[in-house]
Fold this protein.
Amino acid sequence: MDAFLSGEAAQFLEALSLVAGRSPVFGFLIGHRRDHRFFVEKVLPAPQGSSLSAELYFKLDKALEGGIIGFFGLRTSPRYLKGVLSPYGFGKLYLEINPDSRKKARRRSFVIDYEKKFRLRPILLKTDRKEETR
């Protein structure tokens, strides 16, 4: 299993990591899944001050006609991650962004899995340019 991040989505996440400052940001990954690959086409940040909940997820997923394939977090809290590691997150992609002031933000990708408890299982992330993480 792996994930492919479109050039536009990668560029948006890079820009978001630059303008967010030290603020935590989370949001949704929009795209589709084919076989064992997630295709991230767009990124939708959640409004500042909002929290991830099942209610928000289901309303947004309905509005996007089932297009939410995962979540992303930039400097997010353990509380946010606990919301992602839930039944509605199962089988979805989670993209963690760790900004580094000296270079481009580092991205790591996971699939949300369940084996006695919800957990993040690392997967390979690819972009238009190169293989990024495992």
